[in-house]
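Need Cyclic nucleotide-binding domain-containing protein's 3D structure for a figure. Predict it.
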Amino acid sequence: MSTPSPVRIAAVLSTEHRGRLMSHAREVNFPEGARVFDEGARAESFWIVRSGTMTLEVPMPSRRPTPIESLGPGELVGWSWLFPPYVWQLSAEAMTPVRAYEFDATTVRVLMDADPAFGSAIGHWVGRVLALRLQQTRTRLIDLYAPHAIAG
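Structure prediction for Cyclic nucleotide-binding domain-containing protein:
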């Protein structure tokens, strides 16, 4: 099974829509080891990685969180901000020092509602990212638990 390509913003959004989104960006930095968000917390922001690596994790009962995917430059960090009840479904940690663009989720949702073409473009981008993340999560969990199911 081949590894799917990351869904980078430059490959998905038109120059116009990317420019419109980026006009609302704020530059932020996360030190190595910083918790960016935790499952169950309010999803009020999202990020596009400029440099460094963030890891998405699934919290596991009575175990350390399970890493699902590493995200690098140009990749979206966070999709839960787009879907009510706006609560994180995964957790994220900076694995290296990370520079990122941060976006206020409420502002972007208002922009999406005001301009259907922009809203559709952002929705399709986030949808592609979400589909990839679900596939990555499934693959990672099969890697972790399938050997135990066969042995047991």
